[in-house]
User: What shape does this take?
Amino acid sequence: MVELKKILVVVDFTPLSIKALEWAEYIAEKCGGEVVIFVELEDVFSLIKASLGFSLPVPPNLREKEIKKTEEKLKSLIKNLDNTRYIIEAEGTLEKRLPVIIEQENPDMVVIFEDIEGLVKKIDKQTLIIK
Assistant: This one.
């Protein structure tokens, strides 16, 4: 059997990404692995970047507040908190940040969903695409 000690899954809270999370949890349960959930808050990043470019005010602690809200949403979806952790950030686009996170985490498998399958060429790990 293939060893899958760490599975990285991308979540953006669309139905397909929730399905990807469910699959990642299922595989991790069967293989005794850890699930690492990656959420890139692209909208928050874009808003902060645009506000700086136009010298517009950004609500205080916007990034921190959105990360906290996202944590709460994830906690309501995760079935097994013991073998799951998450990375939530607002540092750029998913296209640019996913390869960085993959390099840092070095997962055995990456689970993505059909809407972002164009990123598969940037993933140098075993990849499961949920459709």
The CA atoms of residues 73 and 107 lie 23 Å apart. The domain at 6-130 is CATH 3.40.50.620 (Rossmann fold). The chain has one domain: 6-130. The helical segments are 15-31, 42-53, 62-77, 94-105.
